[in-house]
Amino acid sequence: MTPETYFETPLQYLKGVGPRRADEFTRAGLSTIDDLLHRFPLRYEDRSRLDSVASLEPGATASVMGEVLQGGVRATRRRGFTIFELALADASGVVRAVFMNQPFLRDVLTPGAHAVLFGPVESRRGGGLQFTNPQFELLDADGGDSADDDSRIHTGRIVPVYERIGGVSPKMLRRIVHGALQQLPAAFADPLPADLRSEMDLPALREALGDVHFPAADTPVESLNAFRAPAQVRMIFEEFFIFQFGLRLRRQSLDAEHKARVPKVDDRIRQSALRVLPFKLTAGQKQALQEIVADMCRPQPMNRLLQGDVGAGKTIVALLAALVAMENGLQVALMAPTEILAEQHLRNLSQLLSTSRFKTVALSGGMPAAARRETLNALKTGTAQFVVGTHALVQNPVEFNALGLAIVDEQHRFGVWQRALLRDKGLCPDVLVMTATPIPRTLALTSYGDLDVSTIRELPPGRSPVRTVAKPEGRRAEVYRLIERELGAGRQAYIVYPLVEESEKLDLRAATEMAAHLEQEVFPDRRVALIHGRLKEDAKDAVMAAFARGEYDLLVSTTVIEVGVDVPNATVMVVEHAERFGLAQLHQLRGRVGRGSQQSHCVLLYDRAVSRAGKARLKAVTESTDGFVLAEKDLELRGPGDFFGTRQSGIPTLRVGDLLRDQSIMEQARTEAERWLASGPAAAALVELVESTWAQRFKLVGVG
Ligand code: ADP
Ligand code: MG
Q1: Are residues 406 and 511 in the same domain?
Q2: Ligand 1 within 6 A of 436 CB?
Q3: Measured from the CB, is residue 306 less than 6 Å from ligand 1?
Q4: What residues pair up with 554 in beta bridges, in sequence order?
Q5: What does the alpha-carbon distance between residue 423 and residue 279 come to, in Å, rounded to a whole number?
Q6: Which residue's CA lies nearest to atom 23 of ligand 1?
Q7: Which of 169, 409, 435, 567 has the maximum number of C-beta atoms within 10 A of its C-beta?
Q8: Over the stretch 455-484, which tens digit does the pLDDT of each residue have?
């Protein structure tokens, strides 16, 4: 067997793993020895110094090994709340341990069993000491090897604690991993170049694999539990390095295809831009525009994310970039997430460009065939320079005369867009993605093939932050008073209902009934409109446009108004069942108000049965109006996998790295990958390795 085939060995052939356990491993994403060895322990416990019972002190964390003397479950005065209590003896004395609400432990920690308890020690109310809810491990259960062997693996050292996988306990896993490491080939290839390892002072792979699972005695346990011991850092760095190296390779191959003409900027173009500008750009807008234009003027294709909170003024920046492209004879495409938004963009653009010589056209799903044909023809022949549309733009790839810049409003559809463009080889325009759901730095380094990021931090002058409160259903009357007060002052208000697919009919009915109730009983003197996803496009648009003109006071809606709609006179946003919305959605909805100079309000009405996660989201939104803070919070609450919902979005599948925890290692890996790729011949072996494994390894679209 070559060293490489050892790593590819299915787990079933490992000692202690039969077909049944192998199945459980597979379900948990572990098929081979390589997978197993790349599944880090959850944490580590220092059992190198077992404490004697006699030496225990309250307040310290300790581990003791001993024999269970007796145990019992007692009920408490609180209904359904039980305590399992046991006594454990070693040669020096007896200590108690209590476990809350785990009565089944009675059958696990039975008298006569040998166990290690690990955890904080407290004083007992009646005197003496106890462990409360300690970690524990049985020493002689589940048919291990000789007790001798076991004691070397499970005690008397820093031990790894794994996550249980199906029926495989943390302890069995420890034994299985130990077995796999015992048979590790004496020598095998290390994906990290030796020079790089020695420069960064990282251990070789073989050594690192051993130390990650069974750390040397002198490794500080705190550093292990922070995943910053050298062996762990090495493994994480390797994963990120290979990932970043692949991203760079992919970018290089795109560069080669970027045949579009490279724009130039001169005074004539600056004048043309100034002419369309209706206001002075904020400093953040200027900075972002400079970065974008500098990118466009480089021979490599731009791949840039423009992030700025709702209302920060991204559109005008994108439009100015578009002008640069069009002045250079290139075409521009803008893709919006919904029809309403596409039309809003189209209206704004046509107005801004009305004095220019450029022609803007629309492309949407619901378009009559004749109009569609005309649009397609204008783009193909180049008589239209700017197309605004929904994802209809990519469904049947549109032919362009000279597409130079692709703009995506809101990143969610970007994966689709990018693939569609890539499919069309040779079409490799500059790409600008606008988003109000800011992507935390780590994700920007990973998603979509390495985006550069421009950020607009401030809002245009004269805006005051929206006042946000969360209120339980029971305080609805207060909310109506707030609405009445604002409407009385000539402002407008939104009331938004959640609409989820599973209960679409019910939700729709709720929204419809609510609109009727509000109009007839609560605000009989006000004009109330209803808008929902079941309405035809033109009906929706008609209502939206009438609301924007001030012909309605109150708009009841399902989440179709989520993004982008601009009605500066609206000052109240009420979100019904706010607990059912995601953090980003809530922030987006709130962004519909606070667009004028008036003080605006956002009320999040929630159900009494709100979950803990729901509560955390509401709290986050009331505490901050900063989209960047909220995005970080969102990531924390949901985890990066959920951030965009789909795998195609460009979040790599990682085995040892963690995008949140290991941000700094990712930065370092990126720098090194760039440097290494540029190093020429030394990189050749890596290129081969990465090209053959990258896509599979990270479950992403391929490198080349
Ligand atoms: P978003 O970043 O959410 O896409 P928009 O581009 O829609 O924001 O801009 C929000 C509003 O602010 C628009 O009405 C726009 O005309 C206005 N706006 C943008 N930039 C400025 C500015 N520098 N000064 C004044 N108003 C601005
Ligand atoms: Mg916008």
Answers
A1: no
A2: yes
A3: no
A4: 493, 528
A5: 39
A6: 281
A7: 409
A8: 898 888 877 889 999 999 899 999 999 999
Task: Point out the ligand 1 atom lying closest to the alpha carbon of residue 282.
Answer: 23
pTM of the model: 0.65
Q: Are residues 399 and 544 in the same domain?
A: no
Q: What is the DSSP letter of 282?
A: P
Strand-pairing partners, residue 83, are 74, 100
Ligand 1 site-directed mutation target among 285, 287, 316, most atoms within 8 Å of CB: 316
Rounded alpha-carbon distances, angstroms, from residue 492 to 459, 549, 589: 22, 11, 15
Q: Is residue 474 part of a domain?
A: yes
Give Dmax (Cα) for the chain: 93
Nearest protein CA to atom 9 of ligand 1, as residue: 313
Residues 452 and 474 placed together within one structural domain of the fold = no
Give the tens place of pLDDT for each residue, 635-688.
777 665 444 433 344 567 889 998 778 888 988 998 899 899 888 777 888 888
Q: Which of ligand 1's atoms lies nearest the C-alpha of 285? A: 23
Pick the last residue of a domain from 113, 128, 156.
156
439 and 476, same domain (yes or no): no
Q: Residue 69 is part of a domain; what is its CATH number?
A: 2.40.50.140
Ligand 1 pocket test, pick from 274, 276, 277, 279 with the greatest ligand atom count within 8 Å of Cβ, gives 279
Same domain for 407 and 489? Answer: no
Residue position matching structure tokens 């909805």: 589
Same domain, 275 and 395: yes
- The pocket of ion ligand 2, defined by CB under 5 A, consists of 564
Of the candidates 316, 276, 325, the one whose C-alpha atom is nearest the C-alpha of residue 296 is: 325
Cα 64 to averaged position of ligand 1 atoms, centre (Å): 64
Domain count within the chain = 3
Amino acid 261: pLDDT: 67
**Which range of residues forms the domain containing residue 56?**
49-156
Ligand 1 binding pocket includes 341 (Cβ within 6 Å): no
Q: Closest ligand 1 atom to the C-alpha of 310?
A: 3
Contact 229, 211 (CB under 8 A): yes
Looking at ligand 1, which atom is closest to the CA of residue 566?
14
User: What is the distance between the alpha carbons of residues 312 and 440, in angstroms, rounded to a whole number?
Assistant: 17
